[in-house]
Amino acid sequence: MKQFISYLQHPIVKIFISPLASVIFGLILGFQVTKTPNFLIAAALYGLVIFTQLIEHFQYQRYIAANQKQTPMSIYYACLVICIILALVFVLTQHWAISILIILYLLFIFLQYYPFYLVGTFNYIFLSTFFNGFILNIVAYYSQSHQLSNKFLLDLIPIVIYCMASNLITNDLKNTLPTLPKFKILSQNIKKIAFAMMIIALLLGIYFSLPTHSYLLGQIFMLTFVPLVSIPNLISVKTMDKIQNKINFNASMMLCFNLLYLIAYIF
Prior knowledge:
- By secondary structure, this protein is mostly helical.
- It is about 75% helix and about 0% strand.
- It has helices spanning about 1-10, 10-15, 25-35, 40-65, 75-95, 95-110, 120-145, 150-155, 155-175, 190-210, 215-230, 240-265.
- It starts with a helix and ends with a helix.
């Protein structure tokens, strides 16, 4: 288990694997609905999420950590150009409503640090949850199935709740970084609130994934694994390395939850 947790804390996992959490549920269910999966669009969406998260990381280092050496502008502009190209793929090939959602997502990414400086506010946590837990899964699903149903939107509720809990924990961890300015949302009980939200998301995930054809194996695995790996979020850490490891782990846990929910939902 310790080796597995260490793997989830690796920065490479956070950069290239964790972004799947925002789209995996919608993509896989979309693949199941359509007879002609569009893997090019799926890859473009996955790439868009990766590069927008890289841009978000550069902005964080530049505007919050004031670490100019970690933010070479050439790499930042390269990521920006790639994001625009990938976004154009959606604008030119998808329904206009999906294009608008992608544009709004990009505006949130580009403007959250400057000029609006949303980071650390409840507005930021709400918008981050809205886009990463809800909107991107809608875009992923519609890009494959070309339809939306009320059932699919309801099925996203556990993911949205878990994403909100994950954002609260990440915000709380950043509050403990000694070299950074304090984020605005402070609460002594934030870890307990977030953990309770994770349990609620777990129970709702089990409920929405029923009925099952696998003798509840997916639901049992969710019920065992999710609380076990969520408990470390209740433990406080002080050093910068441990804080960053927990931030990375928290991002990976979002993907783990979505994958387990997806498996229980499908099987």
